[in-house]
């Protein structure tokens, strides 16, 4: 079996297992966090709170987080989704009606996950405690995208990689640019 076939089979197995979770409390919590993260509302709200209450460290972390979210969204939604055009997981894999409320855009990669991971990874170096706190809803958003049938696990993993890269670039670019000044 080739690598793509193995990834496709793993996507099917994991998607069906995660989508079949029946705990209403877990399902409800995931849905609430995903709704808060829609349109990056959660990350913008967290950045505002950090900038307001966190002093210089909070403003630095908030700015890094928002810059990373912007970079991740451009990469994931503006570039990758346009190139990939991957259909969403088949409806018959998802045993609940939340599958009816998913977007029509390309499944690959998960823009929600890329934003969540980008924000969290960019905030963590400036304010590790807040970065750790942000990791909880970021993980919940990532799981919810598979549980709701909006994405395959490989979409979420790729979104996470894009988020990490966006955070690294956002945090590294100013130092690199300042070092190269004549």
Automatic annotation (TrEMBL):
Q: Work out whether the entry's keyword set contains Membrane.
A: yes
Q: Which residues are the signal sequence here?
A: none
Q: Which UniProt keywords apply?
A: Cell membrane, Hydrolase, Membrane, Transmembrane, Transmembrane helix
Query: InterPro entries per the record?
Result: PAP2/HPO, PAP2/HPO_sf
Q: What ranges does the record list as Basic and acidic residues composition bias?
A: 89-104
Q: Using the record's annotation, list all stretches that form the Phosphatidic acid phosphatase type 2/haloperoxidase domain.
A: 64-171
Its primary localisation, in coarse terms, equals membrane
The record, for PANTHER family, names: DECAPRENYLPHOSPHORYL-5-PHOSPHORIBOSE PHOSPHATASE RV3807C-RELATED, SPHINGOSINE-1-PHOSPHATE PHOSPHOHYDROLASE
Q: What is this protein called?
A: Membrane-associated phospholipid phosphatase
Record lineage: Bacteria, Bacillati, Actinomycetota, Actinomycetes, Kitasatosporales
